[in-house]
């Protein structure tokens, strides 16, 4: 399969591996958006969050706090973002992955959300709530 992360798992291409267990592996993101920027992936090839089965999701996410705590211990960041991109134009590698991004003072990353609370009426909140609940049922 022509998947760069499967090739990393197979050892076909090198990576700076930092963690591995039966179901997951973590390695440094080549771009190092901040110092310690790490990607966590399942060993099973799954395209993105929409294709994750329950077991793969569980084993993938159980490793998130482990790697997060290691990054906190190693670099003492002021905070840490856990990010997952799905589909174009956000996702560039189609093997699901979790970004763990330690945050530092003046690190240049812009990842905060915008507060639209004052622009969203109670009716709109209820409509949004309904849309999601209907989609789940
Ligand atoms: P995304 O945009 O969420 O799909 O992110 C994919 C990430 O994979 C990017 O941050 C890339 O820097 C990273 N990446 C791509 N190829 C490699 C590689 N060979 N080793 C490490 N990280 C990679
Ligand atoms: Zn893959």
Structure overview:
A hairpin with a 3-residue loop joins strand 1 and strand 2. The chain contains four helices and five strands; from the N terminus they run H-E-E-E-H-H-E-E-H. By secondary structure, it is of the alpha+beta class. The protein has one domain: HIT-like (HIT family, subunit A, 2-Layer Sandwich). It binds adenosine monophosphate and zinc ion.
Question: What percentage of amino acids are in beta strands?
Answer: 15-25%
CATH architecture classification: 2-Layer Sandwich
Report on the biggest sheet: 5 strands, antiparallel
Major sheet: arrangement of strands: 1-2-3-5-4
Q: Which ligands accompany this protein?
A: adenosine monophosphate, zinc ion
DSSP strand count: 5
Domain module tally? 1
Topology summary:
Blueprint lengths: L3 H7 L6 E4 L3 E5 L9 E5 L11 H9 L1 H12 L3 E5 L14 E6 L18 H15 L1
Antiparallel strand pairs: 1-2, 2-3, 3-5, 4-5
The structure holds adenosine monophosphate and zinc ion.
